Amino acid sequence: AKKEGRGTYRFFEVAMSEEVRERRMIEHDLRLAIEKGEMAIAYQPQTRIGTQEITGFEALLRWNHPVRGDMSPAVFIPIAEESGIILRIGEWVLREACREASSWDRPLKIAVNVSALQVNNPTFVTLVQAILDESGLAPERLELEITESVLIRDPERALQTLTQLKAIGVSIAMDDFGTGYSSLSNLRNFPFDKIKIDRSFVRAIDVNIQAAAIVRAVLGLGRGLGLPVIAEGVETNGELAFLNAEGCREAQGYLFGQPAPIEMFRSVTHAEAVA
Ligand code: C2E
Ligand code: CA
Ligand code: CA
Ligand code: CA
Prior knowledge:
- By secondary structure, the chain is an alpha/beta fold.
- The chain has helices at residues 2-33, 73-83, 86-102, 116-119, 124-135, 149-152, 155-167, 183-189, 199-202, 209-225, 237-245, 266-269, and strands at 39-48, 54-65, 69-71, 109-113, 142-146, 171-177, 194-197, 229-231, 250-251.
């Protein structure tokens, strides 16, 4: 029995070290990914329910790894965050997205995800201002999507940062709403401009009465607080009909468009040539 136990322990140790090695490899490759041109941004439309007009795009990072191929941000973003590499990668995304949006004929919004480490970095507001200046993008067109993890470590500092960002004209959306653990007080204590309902609730609307109830409650909350609500991950007409009936005015999801290179949306971002 003793022998077996030790064998099991050793196997576990090997498995662990393999996982650690894997992370180190990804971390190593991440450091070079931007210079090697392996990173790209996919844009996903945000649509006004009712008129179906596109109001803006969310920038979503894509990494084409030389050996592994396309790697999900759900895999590499956490590694970039833990290693601090997200500071450089996040800056690159912000700069690229703002530059791209500034080239459009239409003043559509550009929503960019930013990590806790970025927002809590003392130079973040200065960086955002510099990127706005160099791109010439109107600050009102930039929306930063942040999760509640931004607010946890140093709430006072986070409040100061968000207040400064609002002062320069940038808007702030609370991302992944409903998946955190103190959303309600955060909505009251921090200057959010928008609530983004997480996909996990939206996708279950038509099969799960609890999810439908939560979505309905969030929409009511938004109305009560005077905050617009956008639903993420809308895939079916049934989900859309429910959202519309419950007063949701904006949506994003495969039903309207998958994240894609911006060229795919040229008829949206650029006005038709006038004859
Ligand atoms: P998120 O911010 O919640 O982004 C929404 C995710 O849902 C995206 O996954 C998007 O492609 C996916 N999605 C949108 N509509 C649908 C739909 O109708 N059905 C389904 N099944 N999925 C849908 P993605 O692109 O894999 O990104 C995953 C996460 O990685 C994001 O979640 C965000 O947290 C993070 N991320 C992506 N880009 C960046 C970035 O530039 N910076 C940071 N800090 N995080 C990023
Ligand atoms: Ca997001
Ligand atoms: Ca989400
Ligand atoms: Ca569904």
